[in-house]
Design goal:
By secondary structure, the chain is α/β, with parallel strands linked by helices. It has two domains: 279 residues, Aminopeptidase (3-Layer(aba) Sandwich), CATH 3.40.630; 113 residues, Alpha-Beta Plaits (2-Layer Sandwich). Helix content is 32%, strand content 24%. The protein is built from eight helices and 16 strands. The strands form four sheets. It has an eight-stranded mixed β-sheet with strand order 1-2-4-3-5-16-6-15, with helices on both faces. Strands 10-12-8-13 form a four-stranded antiparallel β-sheet, covered by helices on one side. Strands 7-14 form a two-stranded antiparallel ribbon. A hairpin with a 7-residue loop joins strand 1 and strand 2. Helix 3 packs across helix 8. The longest helix has 31 residues.
């Protein structure tokens, strides 16, 4: 356990090193922004990060899929090891900004800030490596650069490859354009929703559009399913428990004059209360059973994946806040009033170790918000050094003593 003076000296060294690395961190972010790779294709991003780690003399390994990176540093026999995580994948979206670092790939864009997450984590890693001689003797850490966050499969794959083994706590940042640069959002307990994807397959009997009476038309059955789900599900859950069901895809038919055999609906269930998705799923199944009888079709409900909600651990969050408090003024530590209904597969790591995700302000003061997942998304790059310091300092702070505060928040 470091003494207060040792920890203070190490933190000051980290801050100074990140400041010296500021232009390099911005360069990393701009390179990644200009060369985005969507989920499942992050090979060159992985190679780029591997080169950074190798040049810094760090031990790393690439998971079996050939995408993502796990770096371990510090005392091998340390009694505790803490991790930071960053996601590296981009979205399939066209970049409409007019900047030098605009995406050079068609319909590929870092519109969720993963380039910034990666650059900040890389900055923290480089600073930690450079300041190794100033760290406590038992200081040990891991950096997890994860692919496929946008498809909610990357965290599980990294966990299978040992990313969370031997880790006592894990931390992460997510950029937030609603918060201005210099602000940090925090919340104890629930931060994001449980998110479950569902597919509804409605099988009927197709035929000629001029003779619908000879068919069992799945199209009106699908329309009825959408209407009833949107009408009845909200009436079936506690109004005090945030719940969102959205259908984002409807697929069926290939010709305007042919009634198809099948229509597929795809959507998501998002809830905050533990187990809330079970209630919604049961109600959707009941709706489909009624439609089967009324429309003479067969309905099948599948749920291909589920992400639990991110629940920030009380003790880990307080340590991260202590680290952040030395970097921004008290007024710029902003409580997040309610959980987001978005999903975040960082939650999978929290099934194995306590952790915390903070929101980092990247908004441009006095300018319109450039929202996540939009074609014009961008960040105020002054936030990058702040984020790198928060990550590095938080790992140091986690080593300050046992995490014996009440968990969960």
């Amino acid at each position: 356990m470091p003494t207060p003076q040792t920890a203070k000296t190490a933190a000051q060294r980290l801050d100074a090193t990140v400041n010296a690395l500021d232009s390099r961190i911005r360069g990393i972010r701009r390179f990644l922004h200009a060369h985005p790779e969507p989920s499942g294709e992050e090979f060159q991003t992985t190679a780029y990060l591997a080169d950074l780690a190798q040049d810094a003399g760090l031990d790393f390994r690439i998971p079996r899929a050939g995408r993502g990176l796990i770096i371990d540093a510090g005392a091998r026999d340390a009694p505790r090891r803490f991790a930071l995580r960053a996601d590296i994948d981009a979205l399939r979206l066209h970049d409409e900004k007019s900047v030098d670092y605009r995406s050079r790939a068609t319909n590929r864009m870092h519109a969720c800030g993963h380039d910034a997450h990666t650059a900040m984590a890389a900055g923290a890693v480089l600073a930690l490596a450079e300041c190794a001689d100033a760290m406590p003797a038992d200081f040990a850490w891991r950096a997890v650069f994860q692919p496929e966050e946008e498809t909610a499969t990357g965290a599980l794959a990294m966990i299978e490859d040992g990313a969370i083994e031997g880790i006592d706590a894990i931390i992460a940042l997510h950029v937030d354009p609603v918060l201005s640069v210099g602000e940090i959002g925090y919340r104890h307990g629930a931060l994001t929703a449980t998110c479950e994807e569902f597919h509804i397959t409605i099988e009927g009997r197709g035929g000629h559009g001029a003779r619908p009476h000879t068919t069992d038309d799945p199209v009106p059955a699908a329309a009825l399913a959408v209407q009833m789900i949107y009408t009845l599900v909200p009436r079936s859950v506690d109004a005090h428990a945030p719940t969102v069901v959205s259908i984002g895809m409807i697929e069926g038919g290939v010709n305007p004059n042919v009634i198809p055999n099948e229509v597929i609906l795809r959507g998501t269930i998002r809830t905050i209360e533990p187990g809330g998705e079970d209630t919604v799923r049961t109600r959707i199944q009941e709706v489909l059973e009624g439609i089967e009888r009324a429309a003479k079709v067969k309905c099948r409900l599948d749920t291909p994946y589920r992400i639990g909600g991110v629940r920030n651990d009380m003790a880990v969050t307080n340590r991260c806040l202590k680290a952040a408090r030395d970097l921004v003024t008290g007024d710029n530590l902003v409580p997040v009033p309610r959980p987001s209904m978005g999903g975040e597969d960082f939650a999978h790591y929290l099934d194995h170790a306590p952790g915390c995700m903070l929101r980092l302000g990247v908004g441009f003061p006095g300018q319109p918000v450039r929202h996540l997942h939009s074609n014009t998304f961008d960040i105020h790059e002054d936030a990058l050094a702040i984020g790198a310091k928060v990550l590095a300092r938080s790992l140091l702070e986690l080593h300050a003593g046992p995490l014996d505060e009440k968990h969960g928040g």
